[in-house]
Amino acid sequence: MFSAFHKYTYLITSKFVHPPPTKTNKMAATEEKMEVAVRSETETVGSSEQLEEEEETFFQDIDLLLEYGIPKEDVHLLKNAGINTIKGVQMTIRKRLCEIKGLYEEKIDKIKTVCCTIAASNGFMTGLEVADQRKQVFKLSTGSSNLDRLLGGGIESMAITEAFGEFRTGKTQLSHTLCVTAQMPGANGYLGGKVMFIDTEQTFRPDRLRCIADRFNLDQTAVLENILYARAYNSEHQFELLD
């Protein structure tokens, strides 16, 4: 993950963050965005309600374990380890849970069993339900029309995309471009969002982002303010940043 041939950019989008204003005609752009936001809210109210329900299911609080007999002390240990949801427990492998001081195999087995019980109703869904969920997926432009076409429209949301290759093949350039395009309005009512950039090779360059912002006629300062940056020194540090 941390070799010279791999680059990861994590994009976190939020419907509450507006895209950066253009350098010219900002008032007109603001009015246009307001119209887009109102129209999008009207057209996608059903999808928003569905998304909220899915978020409630996905982000079930870890305190639910208390109702199933898991001691408060054990729940506290999980929280201290950065695990705050039922889904978080399910997504954490047993080996890592065993590394939490105070938790041993018997306790972990019980916690895992309880989490499966809580999430049992969320295990399977029909193909039609999956199709409805897929309607919420949008694409982020890579800045290259040819690459977008190869990817079927761009980088897909709700997924992890890996870019790998030899030295100086454009991985860093792609990451920086996505930092800007992720802040621009897109399909399915997407209004632009913030970006989290975890740098494993100290290649983040704000000056490069300014040039890319100019290319898309966006305000440089607003673009940089919408990017959250952190330097990761090893894989363990990267996990700590994500927690």
Features of this protein?
nucleotide-binding; Rossmann fold; single-stranded DNA binding; 2 domains; mainly alpha; 243 residues; globular; DNA polymerase, domain 1; 7% strand
Q: Can you walk through the features of this model?
A:
The strands form three sheets. Strands 1-4 form a two-stranded antiparallel ribbon. It has a two-stranded antiparallel sheet with strand order 2-3. It has a two-stranded parallel sheet with strand order 5-6. It has helices spanning 26-43, 45-58, 72-80, 86-90, 94-98, 105-118, 127-134, 145-150, 171-181, 206-215, 220-225, 235-242, and strands at residues 6-7, 139-140, 155-156, 163-164, 195-199, 227-231. It contains twelve helices and six strands. 47% of the residues lie in helices and 7% in strands. The longest helix is centred in the first third of the chain and has 18 residues, at 26-43. Residues 136-243 form the RecA family profile domain. It holds the Pfam family Rad51. It comes from Callosobruchus maculatus (Southern cowpea weevil).
SSE order and pairing:
Layout: E1 6-7, H1 26-43, H2 45-58, H3 72-80, H4 86-90, H5 94-98, H6 105-118, H7 127-134, E2 139-140, H8 145-150, E3 155-156, E4 163-164, H9 171-181, E5 195-199, H10 206-215, H11 220-225, E6 227-231, H12 235-242
Parallel strand pairs: 5-6
Antiparallel strand pairs: 1-4, 2-3
Helix pairs in contact: 9-10
